[in-house]
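#structure-requests
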Amino acid sequence: MDHGDGTVTDMTTGLMWQQTVPSNPMTQDEANIYCANLTLAGRSDWRLPTKIELMSIVDFGRTAPAINPTFFPSTPAKFFVSVSWNIFFQDGTTYISNPTDAYYVRCVR
């Protein structure tokens, strides 16, 4: 469900997601700080998603990016970080994160 305020809620999981992501990749520490300090749609309890949570928005029927573009417009087909893994939104594959590498981030609550 698109709330029209920069957030969408996944009706299956009940998770609310940040729709548009920052344009600059971040290390895992930077991503954690970014999410913890994010205020969006009047909410300030954002955090970095778990691997399972981030995988829940992958659309394996799509590629480049492997996500629904209606709800998540302008998502780059790049690596996104979770608390311990990263997901390649080119095709939805998962990789163990290197905490010093920079990845894109999408916060959840």
